[in-house]
Amino acid sequence: MKIVVVAERKDGQPRRVSLELAAKARELGDVEVVEVTGERVSTGATAAALATVAQGADLVLVGATPIGRDVAARLAAKLGRAYASEVTELAPGDPLQVTRSMYAGKVRATVRVPLPAVLSVRPNAFPLPDAAAAPDIVPVSAAPEDGLAFVRFEAAKSAGGRVPLAEARVIVSGGRGLRGPENWKLVEELADVLGAATGASRAVTDAGWRPNEEQVGQTGKTVSPDLYIALGISGAIQHLAGMTSSKVIVAVNKDPDADMFKVCDYGVVADLFDFVPKLTAEIRKVKEGG
Amino acid sequence: MRILVCLKQVPDSTVRVKVAPDGKGIVTDGITWAISPYDEYAIELALEHKDADPATTVSTVTVGPARARDALRQALAMGCDDAAIVVGEASGLALARALAAFVREAKPDLVLCGKQASDDDQGFVGVALAEALGWPHVATVTRFASVDGGPAGSFNGVEVWKEIEGGHEVWRATGPVVLTVQKSAKEPRYPSLPGIMKAKKKEIPERELSALGIDTSAPVAEVIAMQPPPARGNGVILKDGDTAALAAELARRLRDEAKVL
Asked: Mind listing the pLDDT tens digit for each residue in A98-128?
């Protein structure tokens, strides 16, 4: 089977999900890892450039980052291929059998995908072996797209160089229990000792305490990190749908009846303003103790 | 400016989804249907534009079963000018081709779709529609603005805000373009009472999918089984006691039992 992996860079380095896919693809067949070079290339132009190299491939794998998902969909449409997005498991064969979530995480579906196909694959779906050799990445250049031009980038105020939510191995999320944006330091300090991304419930983004891009759940991001810590989040069904595939869930809430406690692996019934600084200190100790 | 919003009727987001006995779909008896949430954001973006520029028209279309008329009625009640339904079942590339056939006739300046439907979560149709039309598209859009110039009322292109990690890219489209809409700052409006009354009187023209004359053959990913996510629960609940001791115990368990530290 011939597989093309479309790599993406962040801060000059291949993204972790690109490396995960390159390693997975090596198990499945002959792999070519490619990337479209150039800054701010439109999705249509990216897909057009990739179409030439992807034409002969049985399978194209793209990391389901915000950009990757978009590129994968356009490429699948351009090539007229079967497509599945945000795949979390993949069994080889023709058709391939993949797993993906539907209904914003309320359902897990097994999907049969005839080859040739394009898949976008969620970060953290496949382990990255420690010894994985860095792939050779073949550059592909794109021609500008008619009718669409990049104008400028407007940075978000809160983007503090943290790990992107979708790729994070650890996420600390805050809900209405934090009482206001001025208390976000509690979330951020815990996230800092864990090297985590920060998330938020919909109540919080709707109130404008945090930007929309931090929202976890329906109409936000669906995540599956190794560790998800929910601080003061009651656990509305739309939020739960977006994070219950996390490996380990920790809930901290004052209300013992909060729905988050029904899905958590570890729950702490406590006042988070009292508890969280102490947890941050304890985790710092564990981390420093090695 | 002439805006067309493509929408899909899906189970309301508050519905507790149950997998059907055959495992290939969900139980739809008695559930509440609604406009897919991102499509509602798309309608809101279009209507905000109309609020600012009354010369703007906002049309909506859906491809789906007859019950999807209710979603169109809702869109009209929110303030859309007109609505049309293409009755039939299509997904993926075939659905994109059906919408493309509709767009070629309706000739809007701008097509808006939600970035993904909240049932299949594929995020494919809007993008594939752009490809079928040979138009550019911009994904995860939270805002757009007309580019001034040209005769009054004419379409002179749009500037579009695309949400990406860490901020927004601003893109300029000089001609027709498909935008797939992300959740934006403003919540979709509720229909007003006069809006609801007006919507009741509006005709929703209907045509059959088979009458569009499109090629419906396309390789598709087929759902063969559905399951609820693995059950969770029976977690360890720590409470009652000194919070410092609880914190120490949680940290120890995360390190030794869960092995995530």
From this structure: 999 999 888 999 999 999 999 999 998 998 8
Work out how many CB contacts closer than 8 A connect A with B.
278
SS3 A273: helix
Tell whether A289 is within 8 A of chain B (Cβ). no
Q: Which chain A positions have a beta carbon within 8 Å of B247's beta carbon?
A: 275, 278-279, 281-282
Which chain B residues are Cβ-neighbours of A114 within 8 angstroms? Answer: 219-221
Residues of chain B in contact with residue A97, where contact means CB-CB under 8 angstroms, are 224
Q: How many residues does chain B have?
A: 261
User: Could you give phi then psi for residue A258, rounded to 5 degrees?
Assistant: -55, 135
pLDDT, tens digit, for every residue of A155-175?
A: 987 656 678 888 899 999 999
Alpha-carbon gap, residue A77 to B247, rounded angstroms: 51
Question: How close B72 comes to chain A (CA, Å)?
Answer: 21
pTM of the model: 0.92
Question: Which two structure tokens, joined as six digits, stand for A57?
Answer: 């491939």
Q: Position of tokens 């070519």?
A: A32
Helix pair A272-289, B243-256: axis angle to 10 deg: 40
Alpha-carbon span A103 to A238, nearest angstrom = 10
Question: Does residue A100 contact residue A111 with C-beta atoms inside 8 Å?
Answer: yes
Cα A203 to the center of its chain, rounded Å: 21
